[in-house]
Write a structure and sequence with these properties.
The chain is α/β, with parallel strands linked by helices. The protein has 4 domains: 101 residues, mini-chromosome maintenance (MCM) complex, chain A, domain 1, CATH 3.30.1640.10; 142 residues, Nucleic acid-binding proteins (OB fold (Dihydrolipoamide Acetyltransferase, E2P), Beta Barrel), CATH 2.40.50.140; 347 residues, 3-Layer(aba) Sandwich (Rossmann fold), CATH 3.40.50.300; 74 residues, no CATH class. The protein is 39% helix and 19% strand. It is built from 24 helices and 21 strands. The strands form 5 sheets. A 5-stranded mixed β-barrel has the order 3-7-8-10-9. It has a 5-stranded parallel sheet with strand order 14-17-20-13-21. Strands 1-2 form a two-stranded parallel sheet. The N and C termini lie far apart (108 Å). The chain binds zinc ion (ZN). The site of zinc ion has 7 residues, from loops.
Length: 697
């Protein structure tokens, strides 16, 4: 074959064909008018005209920039948007084109997407598009784009302009051979922004999502790009030397910021049909199937699984008439003994069921924490780095081993948990990042094992967290022959394991079902008077039982938070059945779950009654009565006997004093005070008294 006989379009011809389409002529005219420095070419348009050139754009993007910009320049001359120093046909060396035309960059959209974790050697110097979440975003800074040079010896010759990357020009006049000087006032600058992106929450599995650095230059370097944003970035894969090794990064040439939705899962017609078929099952069957799909290998824990199911569907977020944010997201805390499958459950939810989730583990100590930090990078470059709750915006944030997290990493969680925003100081002032996520926390008790003490004394993190939880579960590792047998069966026998999974729904289908429900179903208002009545009665009752409205020791009286939690759980249950209407059973289930938690977490060990103060991490009514009883008796007995040593430690009147404490406690309605509690109470009071004496007060 004689290559001379085949007429092929040159890259310049192809770019000219593309740019002479009407939509590009309009785009270019508008770009120049708006003083823009770039235009965007739809990659598909090149592909339609000439697949070979389109391929070349991917394979050698740097090289293909030149014909692209040359074509752009010719089109602009045609449009009389720029002047040409020479006849159009005579093309100038590439760097001059870049200088003389008002538009410097060609950006591509619709370049085929690859997964961020697939970036490796074969992509270096090639054009790719990846989708990711902004993990950190630095400060917008400047970078010289073009220098103007003059010869120090020949002031009369015209200045020379070169791109910043080009070598310094040498003066050639009269064998001068001198390096020319930069005229600094004429330097043309360009914005540059460095960001770190990581795999998006929809695809990242629980451990170690991959991260990569990206640089953005020119008009795509925008200060409003914040940690937590989701974007598609098109650019060249490049390498840079970092601490003796070459690391990949992306030289971005285009970005596309996404509007964040809870859900980015693609759904086919068949998926939607399958989802609607599921919703037609009898409610009790569907509910049971959903529960069976939540960590099927972990047997039991029905209420926890019900709660997690409701959390995945979520209540309905919105804003009040006064514009205050209403949180629809449900927060859950699982405080439990080690070895009961907490971590397995959390991992399972993250990997299989949550449409969008971020998983973090206190043991791993990422150093980034849960909200966001401002950190100093090399030089004096400040950078805002997003923590788990920001990255999980519009999704689920799963925090395992919360107790092992450093204090500074979990500080200031109250605002993000309630208002779902993170405020952080940046060089340019305060910025606000969104953290509109639900939070599922797994934690071990202080001292490793759960005891009968109030929850406040069993957690190693700030007790205010408790008041931000919609549901808190205390999960004791109690030997249970039937349950332990069932757990063993699942592990030992693969047929039984298969059976267990069959009782649920295919996890991927449930994930899509959840996404579909969150996207399309918004059961906001409770219309049914029966539901309203039930919720109200429950709330009023709860306040009555606690009986301490406006207690002066209680900075936050039994709060309307409780009723908000109920509302969220009620909405979530309606959503679970793809219902816009809230029915009585939704409210009943919400109450049932809340009561279940209260009966364990909120149980006052002194009275045997539920106390919402305890649930929210404050001293309960029983404790508040019990301590003064012990103190009073101590003072009385010391006066009677003459010395504290008669009953402290192994003093001979010790049992007598303990009997008195028990008797007085009963009289005051503290029916559940045991001998052991009385002993511990007395011991504590005695030690307090001794330390008081020692300090000589
Ligand atoms: Zn010279």
């Amino acid at each position: 074959m004689n290559p001379g006989t085949i007429k092929t379009d040159s890259p310049l011809d192809v770019f000219l064909k593309v740019l002479k389409e009407d939509k590009y002529l309009e785009h270019i005219t508008k770009a120049v008018k708006d003083n823009k420095k770039s235009i965007v070419i739809d990659y598909e348009d090149v592909l339609n005209i000439n697949p070979n050139i389109a391929r070349a754009i991917i394979e050698k993007p740097e090289e293909m920039m030149i014909p692209g910009l040359n074509a752009l320049r010719l089109v602009m001359v045609d449009l009389e948007l720029t002047t040409s120093p020479k006849p159009i046909s005579e093309l100038l060396p590439p760097e001059l084109k870049l200088i003389k035309i008002p538009i410097r960059h060609i950006r591509y959209s619709n370049v085929e997407e690859i997964s961020l974790k697939d970036i490796r050697g074969e992509y270096v110097n090639k054009l790719v598009t990846v989708r990711g979440i902004v993990r950190s975003s630095g400060r917008l800074s400047g970078k010289p784009y073009q220098y103007t040079y003059k010869c120090p010896n020949h002031r009369d010759i015209p200045p020379v302009q070169k791109l910043a990357d080009d070598p310094v020009p040498i003066c050639t006049k009269d064998n001068c051979n001198t390096k020319m000087d930069i005229v600094s006032k004429d330097t043309v600058w360009e914005d540059i922004l460095t960001i770190q992106i990581q795999e998006p929450p929809e695809t990242a599995k629980s451990s170690n999502p991959k991260r990569i650095k990206a640089t953005l230059e020119g008009d795509i370097a925008r200060e409003e790009i914040e940690a937590g944003d989701i974007l598609k970035i098109t650019g060249m894969v490049a390498t840079e030397r970092v601490k003796n090794r070459d690391e990949y990064y992306i030289k971005g040439i285009n970005i596309d910021l996404e509007d964040k939705k809870y859900e980015e899962i693609e759904m086919t017609e068949e998926d939607i049909q399958a989802i609607q078929d599921l919703a037609k099952l009898p409610p009790e069957v569907l509910e049971q199937k959903i529960i069976n799909t939540i960590a099927p290998r972990i047997q039991g824990y029905k209420e926890v699984k019900e709660a997690i199911a409701l959390q995945l569907f979520g209540g309905v977020s919105g804003s009040r008439i006064d514009n205050a944010h209403i949180r629809g997201d449900i927060h859950i805390l699982l405080l439990g003994d080690p070895g009961i499958g907490k971590s397995d459950t959390l991992n399972y939810i993250s990997d299989n069921l949550a449409p969008r989730s971020i998983y973090t583990d206190g043991k791993l100590s990422s150093g980034v924490g849960l909200t966001a930090i401002t950190s100093m990078k090399e030089g004096d470059e400040w950078e805002v780095e997003a923590g788990a709750m920001v990255l999980a915006d519009k999704g689920l944030c799963i925090i395992d081993e919360f107790d092992k997290m450093k204090d500074e990493e979990r500080d200031n969680l109250n605002t993000p948990l309630e208002q779902q925003k993170v405020h952080i100081a940046k060089a340019s002032g305060m910025i606000t990042l969104n953290s509109r996520c639900s939070v599922l926390i797994g934690a071990n008790p202080k001292g490793g094992r759960l005891t009968d003490k109030p929850i406040r004394e069993q957690i190693s993190f700030p007790d205010t967290i408790l008041s931000r939880m919609d549901l808190t579960f205390i999960l004791k590792d109690v030997p249970n022959t039937k349950m332990d047998g069932a757990i063993a069966d699942v592990i030992i026998d693969e047929d039984i394991e298969e059976e267990v999974y069959k009782k649920g729904i295919d996890a991927e289908l449930l994930r899509k079902y959840i996404a579909y429900a969150r996207q399309n179903i918004h059961p906001r208002r409770i219309e049914d008077p029966e539901v309203k009545k039930a919720l109200k009665e429950y709330y009023v009752d709860a306040r009555q039982t606690t009986g301490k409205n406006g207690d002066e020791d209680s900075p936050i009286p039994i709060s309307p938070r409780l009723i908000r939690a109920l509302k969220r759980l009620t909405q979530a249950r309606a959503r679970m059945f793809l219902r816009e209407d809230i029915i009585y059973e939704d409210g009943a289930k919400a109450i049932q779950l809340l009561e279940y938690c209260q009966n364990t977490v909120g149980m006052d060990p002194f009275t045997g009654k539920v106390d919402l103060d305890i649930m929210e991490g404050r001293p309960g009514g029983g404790e508040k009565k019990f301590k003064p009883i012990v103190r009073m008796l101590m003072i009385e007995k010391t006066e009677e006997m003459g010395s504290i040593s008669w009953y402290s430690h192994s003093g001979e009147h010790r049992e007598e004093v303990i009997d008195a404490i028990l008797e007085e406690s009963r009289k005051e309605g503290l029916a559940k005070v045991t001998r052991k509690m009385a002993e511990e109470g007395l011991q504590e009071a005695v030690e307090w008294e001794y330390s008081y004496i020692k300090e000589g007060k």
